[in-house]
Amino acid sequence: MLKAHFEELLAALKPGERPELMDVPRFMDTKLFQWLMDDEVLDLVEDILGPDIDLFSSHFIAKPPGGSLRVPWHEDSACWRTKLDPMEVVTVWLAIDESDEGNGCMYVIPRTHDNGFSEYYDADTEGE
């Protein structure tokens, strides 16, 4: 059901609008907000953070064939370091399509999150 809902939102984008920029859709989409606040999702997060949970951000990561925007290696915490203190954060990633190396899946580098977050450097976007 979430995939069908996303496909409807994607089809409704205006010409020239990038699907990667479908940021914080929960503000305009009560149906999406219901999925984000589903007991199954919240129970998983509560097991890690405890019962005091706040939804900080939500967005769709859409990579259309033949030309998506580049997403450099990063840790989410480095992007939020000036916005959250303490840095007690869980990212929940719900894949609605098959995801593998051939289509740009997320990859976690083992043992890189043991001591907080790493230094973050802006990506070189020249030539894009």
Written account of the structure:
With 128 residues, the protein is mostly helical. It has one domain (2-103). 26% of the residues lie in helices and 0% in strands. The chain has 4 helices and no strands. The chain has helices at 2-11, 30-36, 39-49, 76-80. The longest helix is centred in the middle third of the chain and has 11 residues, at 39-49. The model has no long low-confidence stretch (mean pLDDT 77).
Topology overview:
Blueprint: H1 2-11, H2 30-36, H3 39-49, H4 76-80
What key attributes describe this structure?
128 residues, mainly alpha, 0% strand, globular
The major β-sheet equals:
none
- Contiguous low-pLDDT stretches (5 residues minimum) are none
Quaternary state, please?
Answer: single chain
Q: If helices are DSSP runs of H or I spanning 4 or more residues, what is the number of helices?
A: 4
User: Which structural class do the helices and strands define?
Assistant: mainly alpha
Name the shape in a single word. globular
Q: What's the pLDDT, averaged over the residues? A: 77
Total strand segments: 0
Percent helix range: 25-40%
Number of domains: 1
**What Rg is obtained from the alpha carbons, in whole angstroms?**
16 Å
**Element string (H = helix, E = strand):** HHHH
